[in-house]
Amino acid sequence: AKNVVRSGDCILAVNGKKASSKDELVKMISFCKGEKVRLKLLRDGEKIEVSIKPVRSQEGVYQIGIWVRDDIAGVGTLTYVNGKGEYGALGHGITDADVGSLIDVHNGSIYETTILEIRKGQRGQPGEMSGMINYKDEYKLGTIKENTSVGIYGTLTNMPEELEDAAAVPVAYKESIKKGPAQIISSVEGSRRAYDIEIQQTDYHSEGNNKGIQFQVTDKKLLKNTGGIIQGMSGSPIIQDGKIIGAVTHVFISDSKMGYGIFIENMLEH
Questions:
Q1: 85 by DSSP, 3-state: which?
Q2: Confidence band (pLDDT; 50, 70, 90) for 207?
């Protein structure tokens, strides 16, 4: 498949038949009897067709030498939910780690996650929250309908217990954000709580739309537990003067105490 199929291609069909999963693709290729197969691909928004002759492996199975992924899972933080049950999360899109491109999400689900381990952030190495996703229906919170550069969006079908009695907060737009104290809300310790940060500066014209707020973690407990901002905290709402102003999006690789956030209006206007 070298120079025929490229990293980032989406496989739509094999010999004119729709391939909707990895298992279906493997079966279609294995039944080719060594004859060339036609793959219909979606590449950079354009549908094209390529031809490949499968090779018989030592196990006697016909293969075309590509690595395919048909699902993805990860840990992130819910940013907001409105009165209609519509939510926004992450503050940035779900991207393919190998090609760096935004993944085209057809459908997905969000679940309550149990955090099992926290790896602290260190200079040059971002930390990470490792969690266990329980796929039972009672842990399913809702659907994922959109994956965009400013977050993922969908509808909640089950409200998390911690949010059932949570009070609504007003929205503050970027012009009203001040340098100084603020909080982020996250669940790194297994329950939802606020942690102190200091807004350092704002950039109304930030490239990529999700680095408009620059802040530093000042909360001693959070610094002790995580070293600052770690992977999995993306989407944590940023609160100032009782209003939501944004969401955590990135950490400084050189200093885990420092982080970036997206303006909440960018998420609301997606």
A1: coil
A2: low
Q: 71-105 in b/e burial notation, b at 16+ Cβ within 10 A?
A: eeeebbbbbbbeeeeebbbbbbbbeeeeeeeebeb
Catalytic residue among 9, 187, 219, 236: 219
Is 92 catalytic? The answer is yes
pTM over 0.85: no
Residue 89 contacts residue 158 (beta carbons within 8 Å): no
Closest among 94, 131, 119 to 256, alpha carbons compared: 119
Residue type, 31: F
Residue 106 bears catalytic tag:
no
The tens digit of pLDDT for each residue in 33-60 reads: 888 999 999 998 899 999 999 999 888 8
Q: Is 219 a catalytic residue?
A: yes
Write the DSSP string, 10-68: EEEEETTEE--SHHHHHHHHHTSTT--EEEEEEETTEEEEEEE--EE-TTS-EE-----
Q: How far is CA 24 from CA 20, 30, 40, 53, in A?
A: 7, 10, 14, 18
**From 187, 206, 234, 256, active-site residue:** 234
Does 119 or 241 have the greater pLDDT score? Answer: 241
* Partners of 250 in the β-ladder: 260
Cα 92 from Cα 205, distance rounded (Å): 16
pLDDT digits (tens, 9 = 90+) for 142-151: 999 999 999 9
Reading the block at residue 42, the tokens are: 């979606």
User: Closest by alpha carbon to 229, among 205, 261, 202, 206?
Assistant: 261
Catalytic residue among 92, 187, 250, 256: 92
